[in-house]
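Ticket #4471: complex job returned nothing on first submit. Input attached below:
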Amino acid sequence: MSRTYTVGQLADIVGGKVRGDAAIVIQGVADVSEAGPTDATWVNREKYADKLKSSRAGTVLIPTDFGETRMPAILCEKIEPSVAKLLGAFASPVSRPETGIHPSAVIHPSARIGANPSIGPHVVIDADVSIGSSCVIHAGVFIGRGTMIGDDCLLWPNVVIRDGCRLGHRVNIHPNSVIGSDGFGYYFDQGRHNKIPHVGGAILEDDVEIGACTCVDRSKFGHTVVGAGTKIDNLVQVAHNVRIGRHCVLVGQTGFAGSVRTGDYCVFGGRSCALDNVAIGDRVTVAGLAIVDKDIPDGLMVSGFPARDHREELRERALVRRLPKLVEQLKELIHRVEQLEASTHHNP
Amino acid sequence: MSRTYTVGQLADIVGGKVRGDAAIVIQGVADVSEAGPTDATWVNREKYADKLKSSRAGTVLIPTDFGETRMPAILCEKIEPSVAKLLGAFASPVSRPETGIHPSAVIHPSARIGANPSIGPHVVIDADVSIGSSCVIHAGVFIGRGTMIGDDCLLWPNVVIRDGCRLGHRVNIHPNSVIGSDGFGYYFDQGRHNKIPHVGGAILEDDVEIGACTCVDRSKFGHTVVGAGTKIDNLVQVAHNVRIGRHCVLVGQTGFAGSVRTGDYCVFGGRSCALDNVAIGDRVTVAGLAIVDKDIPDGLMVSGFPARDHREELRERALVRRLPKLVEQLKELIHRVEQLEASTHHNP
Amino acid sequence: MSRTYTVGQLADIVGGKVRGDAAIVIQGVADVSEAGPTDATWVNREKYADKLKSSRAGTVLIPTDFGETRMPAILCEKIEPSVAKLLGAFASPVSRPETGIHPSAVIHPSARIGANPSIGPHVVIDADVSIGSSCVIHAGVFIGRGTMIGDDCLLWPNVVIRDGCRLGHRVNIHPNSVIGSDGFGYYFDQGRHNKIPHVGGAILEDDVEIGACTCVDRSKFGHTVVGAGTKIDNLVQVAHNVRIGRHCVLVGQTGFAGSVRTGDYCVFGGRSCALDNVAIGDRVTVAGLAIVDKDIPDGLMVSGFPARDHREELRERALVRRLPKLVEQLKELIHRVEQLEASTHHNP
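Support reply: We reran it on our side without changes. The output follows.
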């Protein structure tokens, strides 16, 4: 965070246009309410205009149609990509082991390591592993027999990738996650649970990112698949034989039971869940904490337990909230009917 | 997966009988709808007969009472054990470090290691640890002071077993799991939470299997116990002083709070939960996502939050679904009562 | 557990007063119903008096106002601190690597290590790391570039702390947890999710304790903060930019989404959850499994999904339980109205 830019330089970096003094010096990034005179901040909706009025930020990234600001502004066509570039301008380069292979790494002679590796201390790479070029493999990572890894992958410390898995290019796995561990499969016979062998592996396609302490199990047969560009957060469970489509998002603590399938561009909110064998279409949004227990067609937004059309679930929740009033109405009505009955008896 | 068998050889392996051409060559296993002419598949219920009709599989494992099939079949008395054997026929042998002790492993001179060990790189075994014969201990595993481990155990990379724990024979622990970490216990005094020492350890009895990134905490006193033959999936929390019976199953993301006790042959569905101190009988089935907040007698199937008899919970959920209709009925009834009241007033 | 004390010695240790024979010899600690003649136990409420009547314990810790007991008793002003001291008297000293730095540890020459370290095998400490005095760092721990750690910290095996983080004094992190991993942030552009750099780190203040397999993500900017004295259990997710106050408790499997803020002295029950950006006051208690989806003022106890005042939620749950009766009442009332209508028609 010791970098320094002028507002003009930052505008070039984020692809925006300066309005006001381009010579102001910026040294960091902060929230609109906490930014000081040497910080850049951003506001992406008019409704935060109030917060910006009292902000002491040195400059602010705003959409091109945003109103006046008290400090120099950088007008951006799309605010999100520009903010990402702003953060990138102040980010340290990704930490990595020194180029080469650390002498304490244990690499099987049959493993093939591509050009320009950065392999840290105490890494273990088993027989017949193949690793592409320019991979960064941090300390304590284990890669099992026969696993194949593409170019430019980034494996953080203590990640375990078991035997027979495949990673595409630019796959990024955060610390202490486990890829290709045995699926949870037993058959019950003679009073005990007997293990079902898992012949298949796990495939993470290009540009997949996996959070910390997340598990993607290997498959009974065929492969567990995470499609290209899909991003998975921390502490997520992906069971055996799951097939996740491309460019999906699974937020923290989500769980997929065995053989779940999804299309592309799905979003699973935090701690949502899909029960075994459900098939989910393309562009489905599953709200946080929702439990998907049956197939979902393309494009639906679902929520609740069991997950159903989000609007329907909101109506149902509202009705549950109205229960006390319902009980009251019923009670009153019983009283009125009793009175009617009394007057009818008196009045035959 | 480069192995090759004839249908006749596979029938011998899985303990079934061939119907049709026993000479067909099989090279793999696949799902009924994806299998090709060199794949074996299986169908375990008549209702999948349709799928099998269009399958291109080279052979199919079926129950003995299953009807005609278009490809050679292997008739099996019990389909599940036979399928497990089929998968086993194509499974690679379990990956393991070379026999012996890797020179980078750090083993305390007071530790006792049984015959025929396979101890991988960077393993750490502390003072007074005792390990049985034929154990496979993968890279990066840590075993704390005084822990005792039986024969034929399999510890995957980066597993941590802290001091004072006990594992029986044939215990299998998947990567990055933690056994015997401190229980979560504090007492509040003088404005802060003060740690309660945990004197006890954790015991995993014979044939226990523990998934990846799962935690079994040590005990305040006595021991946390996982009974023989019990299988625990990934990302499961087993808190201090819990005692799980024999041959239970805990599916992914399940959580047991402190001092929970279960009988034998219980099943806990995915992400189910038992609150502290509840006592659960034998052969109890807890549905996925159910929250057990009180004792459950033997043999019950429970679901919901709080968990209760599954049939009762289904009725309740159905009623919630009928709420809109209920509101409608009540509204209509109010109208009818109003009319009655009006006519009674007009008609005294 | 091979230590031996007289009841009199234990009374001194736990700060209580002996009633009865102070010479009895005690060798362990056990539950009131399992304790034998050489075990100490405790009872903290009159309602357990019955269990104590049949207990074979050698001595019992009781509150000063507790009644007669059949065995020598130790009367304690506050039972919980005394029980913690009792357990401490039988606890083994915390297991730790030998004093000094194990030769297999890989420590960057620019790292500064304080006095009296215990650094175990295969530890990796990156450039510009600073570590205070008397820290215990177990096998396989990774500490990333520029991270600063105070005095008397305890890092269990295979913990990963990434670059640019800060730990106060006496911080205790259990095995396989991850501090400072990337937050889960992307912007969607041109058909794919693009990573947002995370410039900030994570700060764990003095006396923070973190369970096993727990994740505290780094921040987009500024820092993710866990306040002094806060205790976090296993398998907990703390997302980017979260700020947790001082002396809070987060029980197992809890999840905090991005930018959640809490005051001091809050308690989050097991598997509770706070959605992104909610602000929670001081001394708030969130029941286990509750989902906080909006701001909560100081001092409230909330439960349910969405979390609301606990008493309100209990009433609502009770009403749902009464639904079958409600349906019955409505049905009966419809019948009565029909009869009234019939008699009114007959009786114009």
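Helices of chain C lie at 7-14, 49-53, 79-90, 310-321, 323-346. Closing as resolved unless it happens again.
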